[in-house]
Amino acid sequence: MRHLFFIALAVVFSSCSSVKNYNEQRLEMISPENLRKDVDFAYSKLQQLHPKLYWYISKKELDNKFDSIKNTINKPMNSVQFYFKLQPVIAQIKEGHLSLRMPAKRFSKKEIKALKNKKGLFGRFEYRLEGEHLYFTENKDSIENIKPGTELLSINDEPVAKYIRKYNKLINSDGKNTTFQPYYLNDVFFNFFVAEKGILDSAKIETLYKNKRKQIILKRESKNEKELEKEKTDRKRTPEKKINDYVAFSNSYNRSFKFLDKDSTVAYVKIKSFSGTFSQRFYKETFSKIKNAQSSHLIIDIRNNYGGSLSEINNLYSYLAKQPFVLIKPSELTSRMSPFRTNYFRKANPLQYTFKSLAYPGYFFYQAFNVYKGRDGIAYYRMKENKSTKPKEDAFSGKVYVLINGSSFSASSVISSKLKYDKRAVLVGEETGGANDGTVAGFYSYQKLPHSKIEFPIGLLLVQPNVEFEDKQRGVVPDVEVIESLQDVIDKKDVQLEWILNDIAAHK
Length: 508
Prior knowledge:
The structure is a single chain. The chain is an alpha+beta fold. It has 3 domains: 2-91, no CATH class; 120-219, Pdz3 Domain; 238-333 and 383-507, 2-enoyl-CoA Hydratase, Chain A, domain 1 (Alpha-Beta Complex), CATH 3.90.226.10. It has 15 helices and 19 strands. The chain has helices at 2-25, 32-49, 59-72, 79-91, 109-116, 160-168, 180-197, 225-234, 239-243, 279-293, 310-318, 350-370, 411-421, 486-490, 495-507, and strands at residues 125-130, 133-139, 151-155, 158-159, 202-209, 212-219, 246-247, 252-253, 255-259, 266-271, 297-301, 331-332, 371-373, 379-381, 399-404, 426-429, 439-448, 455-463, 480-481. The strands form 6 sheets. The chain has a 6-stranded mixed sheet, with helices on both faces. The chain has a 4-stranded antiparallel sheet with strand order 4-3-5-6. Helix 10 (279-293) links the parallel strand 10 (266-271) and strand 11. Helix 6 packs across helix 7 (180-197) and helix 11 (310-318) packs parallel to helix 13. The longest helix is centred in the first third of the chain and has 24 residues, at 2-25. It is globular and about 65 Å long.
């Protein structure tokens, strides 16, 4: 016990020290020579670890891009400035999962605690990007009487359009897909802004509503006792919250289920993330209810779902399949050693390091067992998702609709591609943000650029749905395209779901 006490004490001190050292390091100026070395390091690691690096860009073109950026580095930069220099080149590889980690400021436990007691500056609004314009779509707290549909023109006298252009260059999509960037930038716009400008207590904004411009000073407000108590209550994990995977940060559930009519003929399942948490129990209970109700139609909503667990989508598909299926093709690696480059001890504190060291032999043999060399000489990784799976006893046999949009990414695209190929569902909405023909993700090698210290996670596994590939370098195209407008969002009108309900009614 005494040894554990000293280990715990070391964890606390090392945590405080690492935050301070990191924040100082991220602003230190780095010589052009060392920055160019970081560029070479990043490219060499990509060539070594990424199994599909030249999928959407030729080697010659990518060589030229890395050479070109080195030629433009002629003055010292700090890590943040260098990130904005190098990430646009990484984005041009056009792999949605591939991105440098922005070296944002880290906060001490004391600072985090203080921020938890305050409301966000921009986080109290919902908003939507349209081209180079940003519109507020919801103002729950009625802050400064800002109406839905109001455009945000500038922040502290800097045009919002300038930020949109700058941040858009940082975002990867898969191949020629064009639907992903607006959704993703919509979600991370203020993350980029805060990482670049820091957390502000106030900001001067200029807005435009019905041709009238207005200047407003937004201020960060403290939460009252009632709001703090509600947050405390929301964080308590009830059985319902566990099964539906409650997310306290957004006060919402990752999974939800309901019937959309009195007769329970239309079942609706919303999945915001394939997190894997309690998913097996959720699907077991949900499809048992659907079967007992003898529902004839099922709507699965995976809009704004960035993906997650392959195991979860394989399990979900087993409740939709009418015969045994294989979800994904054999998963390719660059070499048999790739699984051992996942930085097993990454970010482990002294206590975690001790336990992980004890578990390492089991981890080593597990990884070694799951790698094999195919007849084609390529290294592959064994996964249960590339083996045959039987349909569940309570599998749904009626008509399935799936709602998708540009924010349906990664695992959401994999299951959408498979469902469409097997003609098991009607896809409604817009082209998915993730590619129809798969992606590179699975597990990652967390590299760190030696001089700028920027983290660079690189996917090691080629994950592709078990379909005949279209080679169009696009997302999964819906069977029925229905595009929502800005006004639809403001009016909370779900035109995509409405199309499905009208289609069901028309065919009854």
